[in-house]
Amino acid sequence: MKPIWIVDDDPSIRFVLEKALLREHLASRSFTNPREVLDALADLDDAGAGADSGPQVLVSDIRMPGGSGLELLAKVKARRPGLPVIVMTAYSDLDSAVSAFQGGAFEYLPKPFDVTRAVELIRRALDESLREQVAEERLVDTPEMLGQAPAMQDVFRAIGRLSQSNVTVLITGESGTGKELVARALHKHSARAKGPFVAINTAAIPKDLLESELFGHERGAFTGAQAQRRGRFEQAEGGTLFLDEIGDMPLELQTRLLRVLSDGQFYRVGGHSAVKVSVRVIAATHQNLEQRVREGAFREDLFHRLNVIRLRLPRLAERREDIPMLTRHFLQHSAQQLGVEPKRISDAALARLAAFDFPGNVRQLENICHWLTVMASAQVIEPEDLPPEVLEAVPAASASAAATEGSPAAPSAVPLAAPARARALSGVAAGAEGAAASAWDAALLTEAQHLLQSGRTDVWDTLTQRFEARLIEAALAHTHGRRIEAAQKLGIGRNTLTRKIQELGLE
Question: Which of 7, 68, 220, 492 could form a disulfide bond with 31, CB atoms 3.0-4.6 angstroms apart?
């Protein structure tokens, strides 16, 4: 993660923020005036580093010798429009701070400030910066969707037919089938492609924050609302808004969403003036919405408003012929991420994978390929290198029979015990019992010995970070992205989980 830049002529302010960020394991860099900041950005641009380096968040005072924080805000935003800028100001300078928001400031921090409040605000800005950065990277780097199976070809044809339409689309399918990829493809090939693509997982945001997240809020609308804030609908103006896990949206917000879909207008939280937007809505869910309607948990009129065009994504077990191609693609992608030589996979190992049921679908296959890139000792992956949940669930005889027949094994031919199915959700070894636990311990011991023999001095941190990342991914997969529930399952606090997600780059 890039550092937080602090600019203030007061050394005590710089010292307090630097120490507070250091305690949170966040890197920082300090400047005494706006000129130094602009010179540092110019040096990075001259070196060809551009937006890939520099600050993740900028925290700036308003009144400083040698330049105004408001002028700095305008110049920084011209160079790096996506950079969150937090403006610090004395209480008497509130009017200047309010005007700063019109220049694109993320938030303001009144002086004297509470250090805990300051760190919390910086973390919010970091979260926003990382989310937008990851979304932008995914939109640029994500290749065209892969799939030769008839079920996927039907999806591709539907995307083509919908390319020139602004109609609302409902994407259904199990978790991990690639619903967001389809939403991005629909946006990329539409007339709105030049507009923003904004995604939000309605199940991952606490109920009391979701309304403000979607529709924004006015200054003073609730405790802590110190400035007007645009919601996701306004951010997606002229583009596409992807509402993931729509089936988990609270009933009272379903009413507000229905109104926006009906007339394109809404009110910010605490607002009195209607805001009109032009946004295409794509929704997705892994749930049976018809059943949710019958249970009274989802509005029938909203269901019909969303269900104009429905795209159903197949389970990976329904498109087994795509597993070899996807496996090779994910192995290449994992190698690029880790900066290592891509590993190859033998036909026997591919047959074993193709016979696996993949309850976590494509996301689980991607996780397994990442695990293999890290954990498999040889350059060619053999069946014995596969993670325990695959080896447990798919006997070698079943995989050989599938390969001999020359076609993917039918789902009914894959005996998968209930405990193994639960473990497989994470796509990595996740607390298996008995032999699986022994295999996991042995793999961990082997990897630790390999790192120690390589002469590295960061073995503890490296393995701890991998373990924490896989554990969090498993919990989020189990709870379908609901962070509060995932934190409860793991036995940690929600703030701890959020911090770990940011530190480990799991956004």
Answer: 7
